[in-house]
Amino acid sequence: MNILQTPFYQVDVFSDELFGGNPLAVFLRGEDFKEAQFQQMAREMNLSETTFVLPSSHPDADFDVRIFTPEKELPFAGHPTLGTAFVLRHAGLVPSTQNHVRLNFKVGVIQVDLQEDDKIFMTQPPGKILQTFTNTEEVAQVLGLTANNIDLPVQTASTGFPALLVPINSLRAMQRIVLNLSLLKVLLEEAEVDMIYPFTRQTLDQKSSVHARGFAPFVGIPEDPATGSVAGALGYYLKDKNPKEKNLIIEQGYEMKRPGLIFVSMDGAKIQVGGKTRMVFKASLYLE
Predict the structure, then answer these.
(1) Are residue 149 and residue 261 in the same domain, yes or no?
(2) pLDDT, tens digit (0-9, with 9 covering 90-100), for 113-127
């Protein structure tokens, strides 16, 4: 039996402290895997997402990247984009003199900017509002709250990864959320999204703009510590309501004791999402 050692890294994205933010596993030699093994490996790692880097198949990209949750492949996601770019730089596959890398996902090519202050930013696909939900009582029941905890509008929005955005009127209500999974499944199917993303403008840190939580239990993510792709959608949603919105700092993961900070910049139609990343460990997988 031939055993192949293939290297991988684990990083914490949207945090500069160990054990904060959103953990990510990055496999640098995706070509070592058979098709079925991508999903099997993501299930084995059991993180929100695992990425696999492959040689570029697009003339405008430096690398191809595939993203898997424990349950399914995703066309795009935020923290996997930033964490993969960080690992590529750390491993020397992106020269230290190069200030950007272009990654090709199922959704298309995303440029990631590597800044001198150790923050990494990605330019997300154009934002859009998809659906509006007026049944606040039903949405509240899904979250274990009451209708008077919910502000309007409740909408699905996307900058590459659509989610159901639910404005909540207090930090205390955010901390009291307990999901009703049977009702959530029905609501997410109606919304045609995988994640519900409640948020409030009340924050724990006075420097933050938004306190958020993200839940996608039916794709293997009971709660997400930091959701970069939906942070961009939230930025678009808030700018749609108030054109003066330009910069956000989203705190997320605090209820999970994995605090992270997501930075969102909105300049016209251009939406950038970023933050810091912390290296955790490097290891090898023994692959048959």
Answers:
(1) yes
(2) 998 788 999 999 999
